[in-house]
Amino acid sequence: MAHYDDLDNKQIYAYSAIFVVGTVITIFFVSIIFHWMDNGEQTRKMLETEYNQFNQILAEQTESLNEFVVVDPVTGRFGIPIENAIDSALKQEKKSDEGTRDEA
Questions:
Q1: Which of 30, 49, 63, 79 counts the highest number of beta carbons within 10 A?
Q2: How many domains does the chain contain in total?
Q3: Is 42 part of a structural domain of the chain?
Q4: Which residue range(s) make up the domain with 29?
Q5: Predicted TM-score (pTM) of this structure
Q6: C-alpha to C-alpha distance for 99 and 96, rounded to whole angstroms
Q7: Residue range 43-67, pLDDT digits in tens
């Protein structure tokens, strides 16, 4: 007559150990692949998102600061490039400084 507890325990333990090790190795490799893909995605996002948008906005603002524009044609207000405005302001300041030195 067959006994139901005549199981081969060594074989059960061996298969269990193999499956546990295989599962741990699979989880390890999946986590490595996930980490690698996540780093790649973060790098892609950094290269394609706000940094390029900010550079584009900065380029547009720099272009608008370096051109002549009509601000208000009714009052005759015009915009001049920022370098010209700085030079003009410095020249006016020098003139005002020379005028105050002559009076003193």
A1: 79
A2: 1
A3: yes
A4: 7-48
A5: 0.40
A6: 5
A7: 887 777 767 778 888 888 888 778 8
